[in-house]
Write a structure and sequence with these properties.
Number of domains: 3
CATH superfamily of the largest domain: EAL domain
CATH architecture of the largest domain: Alpha-Beta Barrel
Number of helices: 22
Strand content: 15-25%
Structural class: alpha/beta
Strand order of the largest sheet: 13-14-16-17-18-19-20-21
Distance between the termini: 106 Å
Radius of gyration: 38 Å
Number of strands: 21
């Protein structure tokens, strides 16, 4: 035989040494031959060696050659199997070929026949290898093309920005998140003023180049977590999730105008562009994506009608909301001196014993003109205007005074919890202020718990950790409120000197219906206990929720199922005196 296949490996299997040695001796000058006396030994060799051709007797001791065929192809799909048949009948060889054997050789052996059969089998092996390479390459090309098509389905071909399909999908997700966590978001519709005229002047090619430059500047002018997309023609859309007020939107709009005010250079020409922006808000203007888009588009049309180069909020309800906010802000500034605020108290109970172990102080505003104002309305406004600082200090002092008053009467309501706002936490004089209030009211600092929100702790974790350690030195307990609503950094969570994790009520409310919330609450509880922290669940409203908290060994709970927040007098008469009378 010509030495055309010197790099081919052949495995020869026969339980008769003379036969396998004869074949190996005949083939050894042109092939690397390996021999085995059983199917079991051959399969071990296949798993560790690169075999191109298997030459095997049908009848072997133990596993037969026919039974071995599927195992060979499972271990090495491109390996060709050729059978050696010593039976007078061809039935065994035919059955082997049905199972995947390529050819057979009859005994007694004809070496010339072996030469031809081996050459043919190895040619078939080469074809299999080439076929598999082509199939693999085809699969890769199909996968690559599929990925390209998917990308093109969701992105603008000219600018590579998300297109309207991807934007609307992200908008729907953002709305669902905002709805769940009672947040607001904004949608901005941005359009190049009189772009048709610019495009006609430049021509299609340069107009496209200009559009890419606009898209690039827009992308670089906003934060990475904001979604900006190109819609039709010269229009873009921007999604701003989790806004706290119109100031957030105006700041982003100003950043966009600043980025776009410099001239664009296209084909050595300086081109100045102006832009109009229409803005709609969730949930103020609409509660679904299509209506938000429609309202932002209407606001954009209004901005263009005013001459362009400006932004405009969606008109419906804006005047009413602006007036309401103005009234609230003016009233809020006078509320403290008018003593319109009240502190209500909600009991916290031990999950196992259902005994009161603490109380949370919650501020309420009863305005003489507006009536009872929801904390959802005035707390964000107080944060925005900075009035949360004197208000927060007043709540903390009032709660500590009340705790001392109850202690003086012989009542022990447990730990008094008070919320600490972001602005309070960031103040340089925070420690001195709290230490002063604790000393002034004469309470035991270990009976005071400050509730902090993880969102502002994570903004500057190093500074937060230092402040928390200073608070801990005063003996104060620390808890993270609304845990689970933000993207917590577990590496920092382990470093925070806190005592308690408080599960947000949005997860507790759907415990009996939402499997995701069930798993999340279980995970938070397990995490907290592993970190030697207590777990408090808020917003418990029924027996099923409470039973679940008992089943997962949650430590404490609070909610309407036991009591709403009540005035100090009601708290004292309903809970403290009742508890004292049963002792």
């Amino acid at each position: 035989m010509e030495n055309r296949n010197s790099n081919k490996n052949i495995l020869i299997i026969d339980d008769e040494p003379p036969i396998r040695n004869l074949i190996a001796e005949f083939l050894k000058d042109n092939f690397a031959c390996i021999t085995a006396d059983s199917a079991e030994e051959a399969l071990k060799i296949l798993r560790s060696s690169d075999i191109n051709l298997v030459l095997t007797d049908i009848n072997l001791g133990g596993m037969t050659g026919t039974e071995m065929i599927p195992h060979v192809h499972a271990a090495s799909p491109d390996t060709v199997v050729m059978m050696i048949s010593g039976e007078g009948s061809m039935e065994g060889a035919i059955n082997a070929m049905r199972l995947g054997a390529f050819d057979y050789i009859s005994k007694p052996l004809d070496l010339d026949h072996i030469e031809v059969a081996v050459e043919r089998a190895l040619e078939h092996h080469s074809l299999l290898v080439e076929k598999r390479k082509h199939e693999t390459r085809l699969e890769e090309l199909v996968k690559q093309r599929t990925e390209e098509l998917i990308y093109l389905s969701y992105h603008d071909a000219l600018t590579n920005l998300p297109n309207s399909i991807l934007f609307e999908d992200r908008l729907s997700q953002a709305i669902a998140h905002a709805n769940r966590f009672k947040q607001s978001l904004a949608m901005l519709y941005i359009s190049i003023d009189r772009f048709d005229h610019v495009n006609d002047t430049l021509g299609h090619r340069l107009g496209s180049e200009l559009m890419k430059k606009v898209a690039d500047r827009l992308s670089r002018s906003v934060a990475e977590d904001l979604t900006i997309a190109r819609f039709e023609g010269s229009e873009f859309a921007l999604l701003i999730p989790q806004i706290t007020g119109t100031e957030d939107i105006i700041a982003v709009a100003n950043d966009i105008y600043s980025a776009l005010e410099a001239p664009f250079v296209v084909d050595s020409k300086e081109i100045f562009l102006s832009f109009s922006v229409g803005i709609s808000l969730y949930p103020d203007d609409a509660t679904d994506g299509q209506k938000l888009l429609k309202n932002a588009s209407a606001a954009l049309a209004g901005a263009k009608e005013q001459g362009g180069n400006n932004y405009r909020f969606y008109r419906s309800g804006m005047n009413e909301r602006a007036l309401k906010r103005l009234i609230l802000e003016n009233s809020l500034r006078k509320a403290i001196e008018r003593e319109e605020f009240e502190v209500h108290y909600q009991p916290k109970l031990n999950v196992k014993t259902d005994k009161i172990v603490g109380v949370e102080a919650l501020v309420r505003w009863r305005n003489q003109d507006l009536g009872l104002v929801s904390p959802k309305d005035f707390i964000p406004l107080a944060e925005m205007t900075g009035l949360i600082i004197p208000l927060g200090e007043w709540v903390l002092r009032t709660a500590c005074k009340q705790l001392r008053a109850w202690n003086n009467k012989g009542f022990s309501p447990g730990v008094m919890s008070v919320n600490l706002s972001a602005r309070q936490f960031q103040r340089e004089c925070l420690l001195e202020e709290i230490e002063s209030i604790v000393a002034e009211t004469g309470i035991d600092a270990s009976k005071l718990e400050l509730e902090l929100t993880e969102s502002y702790l994570m903004k500057d974790p190093q500074r937060s950790i230092a402040t928390l350690h200073s608070l801990k030195k005063l003996g104060i307990k620390l808890s993270i409120d609304d845990f689970g609503t933000e993207y917590s950094s577990l590496s920092y969570l382990k470093r925070l000197p806190i005592d308690i994790l408080k599960i947000d009520q949005s997860f507790v409310q759907d415990l009996t219906e939402n499997p995701d919330d069930i798993e999340l609450v279980q995970a938070i509880t397990t995490l907290a206990h592993n970190l030697r922290l207590k777990v408090i669940a808020e917003g418990v409203e029924n027996a099923e929720q409470l039973q679940f908290l008992k089943d997962i060994d949650c430590d404490e709970w609070q909610g309407y199922y036991f009591s709403r927040p009540v005035t100090s007098d009601v708290f004292e008469s309903s809970f403290l005196r009742t508890a004292a009378s049963t002792v």
